[in-house]
Amino acid sequence: MLPPIRSCTEADAPGSWRNCSSGRIPSGSGPQLCKGHNSSSSDSTDSGYGDMPAAFCGRSTGRYEKMTRQDYEDFEKLVGKHFDKKFGFAPPLQDWRLPEPSEMFVAERWKDARLQTLKDELNSVKSKLDSYNLNDWHKHTRAMNKAGEIQWRLRKELEPEFLTQAWCKFYENARSFILVPPTVVNTGCLSSVHLCEAPGAFITSLNHFLKLHNPGIEWKWLATTLNPYYEGNPLSCMINDDRFILQTLSNWNFGLDYTGNLMDLNNMLHLVQEAAKIGDVLLVTADGSIDCQEDPGEQESLVASLHYCETVSALHILAQGGSFLLKMFTMYEHETVCLMFLLCCAFNRVHVFKPATSKEGNSEVYVVCLEYRGRDVIEPWLEVLRKHFGPELPDKAVFPQASIPQDFLDQLYKCASLFKDLQTDVIETNIQMYERGRIHSQDYKIKRLRYLIANHFMETYEIVKLPESDEVVGKSKLKKTMTLNMDPRAEEGSFADRRKKSTLKPLELLTVLNEELDSMRVVWPFGDEDVKHLEFPTCVKGFKIQIGQPVKTVHSSKFCLGRLLRIRNQVREIARRDFQFSPSTENDISCKNTVASERLDLESELSQQLRKAYPKNKLIILNYKEKLWTSMEGGNEEAERNAFWDIMDAIDNMWRDENLLLQGYPMLTQFNVGIVYMLCHLFDEVGFVKPVKQDFAVLFVGFRKWNPQMRKFLGEVDDTIEKLHNEGGNRTVLSLFPINMLCERYSSESKTGEETREEAHGMQNGDRYSDRPEDHDNIFYKCVTEVNHLCVKEQVSDIIINILKKHGYSNV
Fold first, then answer.
1. Has the keyword Transcription been applied to this entry (predicted)?
2. Would you please indicate which residues are annotated as catalytic (active-site) residues?
């Protein structure tokens, strides 16, 4: 709480300020905030602000006005209110009791009239935003965000590792409640599990908290999330920043099937087993959500199954006395009511908290559950919960409405009303300010309030800078880690505009996608080099066979821009569904074993040119120009398996110094890229050929003598693939190397300024990208991705133009 206004003394004369850097209220009766920018007051922290105290200044100058004592009191109340958005459940003396397990999932779905009224009131206010342009609206709400200065202050003064809004929200939770149980201090160790954790800011925030407030604690952690490296996961369902994950892979568990899907029972039970290996888990966090932009009024129902699975997982993982932090939204439907009642019965204390750094205009809250009563206590109920674990909740309610105590429902209604009122008040205020066209006279007050709130955050939560040696990965290393799919998610137009776009006719939608495709600048990065030559050592280390659920359709790839791949998949779906359009071999997809083409040695203009370039040695050609690309919408597992056998047969029959041309081989999956990476180490030289429209290839020159270690490993891969294929199960080999081996890519920050300038100069003049042997992995990743970009864009453009021209569009 801000200190009260003090009486005026000689030291505190009007216009004089004390402790302004800490955000304290100035003394004196009705002091002026500004005497002019030319003041030479020694208490001013920034001469650009004149006599105005830093406590009331934002990061930019502006128009300032006099403030009254009432203004100061109002600021004090607003700051206090912003940090006090909490509700605590208070069970009766005899405690709440769960219904008998036999009563679970037998009653019909039900609705609480009072809670439904709150839902209608909230949706009525939110519906006023439907016609607003999202970019404009979000720009406005960012300016209105009272906590908008906090991240800037943290980044400027403390530079926390992997700072995000989630980082701030976790830290608030950890400092506002006893989230880390006191027993951790006694035992000297903490084990934590983090569900739906991508990109990982909860983990770095917890580390910061522990290093400052529980130094010396031995900390072990495990995390899970939808696997950003499993190509069957759509990008729309994942966080597209995997820098932290890439650097901490050994701490991440993606389940038995490698998808990272927590809503699969086998994956959940596997996670429970793995969590037990790091000791008694005393903290579980769950920060998951689902994109609800297309139906924001039903956000709660859309995320209900995820919240159910997160909660049931936590109740299986936690040790007695542990804490559970769950992100939730509104609490109007029976699914959430039952879940909250379950938590109130499983933990001694349950609070609902909206951190100051959580955007006021959304429904996000955190359920803080403390002092778990233990799995043994609730095992009879867990047994039933496991039976209904999955992506879809059953038609029946978890508990009958009559079994929920009325005093619990009353408290839940009070809780839901509190956060609904907070949200609607903010939305209504933002709408009023938005309709005026600009913030106008309130601008200076908002800036001062933002700065006061940032000061209060820094002082109340006692955050200080952490040495980089105490960080999980280290901010320097994270800055140097590039991740290809961090292309921004554009929010174009209003909600109504997006709805309208979803109703466009196929030809209209193709023209829109064609414009989006044209706006993407994709070029060959190696200047005049038509073939980018690389050399690799004779053996590669780090083999690791990863088994998991087969990828039937390639929805994502760490080797292609997410936006480009999304357009590709969307265009090909429209082409097949609405125009019965297919490339020349698309109809072959349904035929088994057709990927093992009878004409793998098919000559093309490109292969003829390369054969002339290497006339001395035999050139073996494997041509997958159409077969593998068309399989990515279905049957990808079988296509990749047969192609692998083709390549192995070709390699087994090769002699020293013979050459291999791998033509049209799509490098979008870890498995295919791993095969190419392996081949790079079997030949004296590798050349990535500049694509000519859709014609591209990788040329392997000078077959080496087999390295025994590599032959043994490829034999293991072959045996594993055949074994899994013969078993007929839903498992296959997904990768041959850890993803961080295949994604050795660093930003320019990892190089000296001279190196970066030389690299840029070389690319501009067509020089070789790098001649340093240690860069071969880095350039390999660049070659793979740039070839993919050029080919995918050309494929998609070709389909769109063919369809549009066929239907009379002449301006394409």
1. no
2. 327
